[in-house]
Amino acid sequence: MKVKQWGGVMRSLTIKALTEVGILVPLIIGLIISFGIMNPLFLSLFNFKSVLTQTTYLGLLTMGEMLPLIVGGFDMSIGTLIAFTSVVTTMTMKMEIFADPTAMVILGILAGLLVGLGIGLFNGLIIAFLKVDAFVVTIGSMSICAGAAFVLTRGHPVFGLPEVFKTTLGKGEIIGGVSLPFLIMIGIAIGLFMLMNRTRLGRYWWAIGGNIRGAIHSGISTRKYTLLAYVICSLLASVSGVLLTARAGSGELTMGASLMPQAIAAAVLGGTAIGGGRGNVPGALLGAFFITMLLNGMNLIALGSFIQQVVVGSFLLVAIIVDRYLRRLRLRKEAEIWTID
Fold first, then answer.
1. Which of 81, 329, 288 is nearest to 186 (CA)?
2. pTM of this prediction?
3. Is the pLDDT at 97 greater than 90, yes or no?
4. What is the DSSP letter of 156?
5. How far apart are CA 272 and CA 322, in angstroms?
6. How far is CA 314 from CA 24, 40, 204, 262, 319, in A?
7. In angstroms, rounded to a whole number, what is the distance separating the alpha carbons of residues 8 and 2?
8. For residue 119, how far is the Cα from the chain centroid?
9. Tens digits of residue pLDDT in 105-122
10. Quick one: 212 exposed, middle or buried, by C-beta within 10 A (0-12, 13-18, 19+)?
11. The CATH number fitting domain 22-340, selected from 1.10.150, 1.10.287, 1.10.3470, 2.60.40
């Protein structure tokens, strides 16, 4: 009898752990061992710093994508929004409204963030207030962002950015060789974590995604908080776009094209539920770190870009299947508890 009880306890703890962080921990350990054997450079300090820096951009996107997922939706526009932000940021900086390059950098960054705010409001208002399906709305805004970026640049990259922008936000390093963009991401992550775990906002998001009817009956303004989730998602995508632009040194039409599916995969691998009601910042960052590490390792062993897309897509499908399985186990466990009561 005791053996059965301990077995039930271990099973419950395993389900809870996998629900919180998905299947990330064994996957990360497996990646480190596998790529370390195939290419020892993977385990070098230099490569580790490189992975951390590359995690910055996907980490911001993943934290953003996590929020629509938590409230029961998702955002397909974040990839092309990065390109749109990049183009607007660079074109604003080249206007030479002010003689001081630093002033133009600030103006360009603000213009890029306003793009994110506008797209977030566009998505959120239609989804939350007009009740249009999130997939349809964000596919539409994805097309709008891509088309607008092309029209503004006529299909050509935008060069000639101020050096202060490229050196500070693109290549800037702080103590110990840690990049400034990485520290910016960590600061945003801490702020979002506190927002979700120390204020009612996080509880409202989880409630909306878990049971929207129950949230409405509890007096939660579901429309307002759903709108806010999409606004923050787009703002974080624009922050990522600004930082990527500084790193590339130019405004690119194709920037961020492959990051949207990676962000969704990272969020789900990190424990964010497809369908809403569950998600956390540490899990999202771990998911982004895993995807970045996976891509880095595949580059080191010289796997082709198309094969890499197949691998990332496969991990996304596995993560969704595991998420669905864990959700069924959790619901069955809750049903058993209600039956006992």
1. 288
2. 0.88
3. no
4. -
5. 11
6. 15, 25, 32, 11, 9
7. 10
8. 16
9. 999 999 999 999 999 999
10. middle
11. 1.10.3470
